[in-house]
Amino acid sequence: MAEEGPIGMVTDYMARLNKTGSEAMQELGANACTDVTGFGLLGHAFEMIQGTGKGMVIHVSNVPVFPEAVNFAQMGLVPGGTYRNREFRINRVDIDSEVSPYLVDILFDPQTSGGLLIAVCEEKAEKMVKGLKERGIHEAAVIGTVVNDPEERIVVTRNNRDPGLRETE
User: How many angstroms separate the CA atoms of 26 and 32, rounded?
Assistant: First the structure.
């Protein structure tokens, strides 16, 4: 069971994340956006590319994750919806063999309020991250790219530049 401190921290984070993110997104302009909820990050990422003829590469080491979520996932304590999400979308996801199974669980986790997945053109990406951090969303990060190939697939890989998972503080 989660302790009181982390529960309060996560609740506060969820309350401010989408409002602040949507304000920054509207200011800079975005191509697409989804809030990561019931279908997990990978489910929502696929919805963003579905029907576009595009694919996506996600660098798992750039995905901000609460340390408590990592601890629970490493113990195998994940919601049942994680398995249903994986079963539903795994046929559209290619996972690098170096990505740990517990990280895959986290990416399919049916978030209650997992924040926003915002797509902007490459030229705006760093400016978007900077704007979010200036507004107090210090965990904002570029987690991947939209690509032409593989079409309508998501590739999950480790980012060789960052050997560890990026945990939120």
Answer: 11
Around 134, how many Cα atoms within 13 Å sit in the side-chain half-sphere? 8
Structural domain contains residue 78: yes
Asked if residue 121 has pLDDT above 90, the reply is: yes
pLDDT of residue 164: 42
Range of the domain at 47: 4-157
- Tell me the C-alpha to C-alpha distance, in Å, between residue 55 and each of 13, 27, 100, 142, 148: 30, 26, 22, 16, 6
Which two three-digit tokens encode residue 67?
A: 């340390």
Give 129's Cβ-side CA count (13 Å radius).
14
Residue 163 located in a structural domain: no
Strand locations in 51-158, DSSP E?
55-59, 93-95, 116-119, 144-147, 154-157
